[in-house]
Amino acid sequence: MDNIRTKQAENLIKLAGKTSQGTEILKDAKKGFIDVKAYERALKDLIAAEDFIYTSLPSHGLSAREAGDFTNKLLDARENIHSMLADFGVMEKISSQNQVHELSKKWIILTTKSNYKKMLMKMGVNVQQIVVAGVPLKVEDMKQLNPKIPDAALKSIDKKITHVKNDISRKMEKLKLKNILVIAESDLNGDILGKNASELYGARVVLEGNLKDLNDSKLVDILLELEN
Question: Exposure of 86 by Cβ count < 10 A (0-12 exposed, 13-18 middle, 19+ buried)?
């Protein structure tokens, strides 16, 4: 059984050299050396991912948590596969950060906290394209975040909202961008920002359970999915 599963995993490795549309983007291989450790890591991750095929029988349905574990194994395997193919010149060695940088060029990205901004910058997003909206984009929604907030305090909140909206408009005009993307955690702050931005700008919204778990490889997949 282990030999059969190993062969299945090897076939998955071969398929990983294709784009999501199935078009091969491979070049002729050149001389090189096998990165055995990378191969072992990829194989291990693919075999671990294959376990979900059997544990999810007969429907092959996965819960959100199981889907996260399954796809993370595939993403880890893909990273090692790409590295090995690049070592032999079959594929270009492209960092996830460069991919994020290219794929995010069409977006003004809104998020809820400054540390999320720093995280997105490290992943490759141009700092000029990021806006931190620490407040809702509609002053009345502040009551949802803090029902006890006094009306007098809402005036200063309204000024902050105006500043955020001006920042968005300025960046859209300066960078000649019209697409807004919200990337935040799926908490009340993120939910409200996503709803506001969707209503005001027709924004696309990506909310993650724990944004700290977001990595550049996963962000690449999110941005690619938004292209469709």
Answer: middle
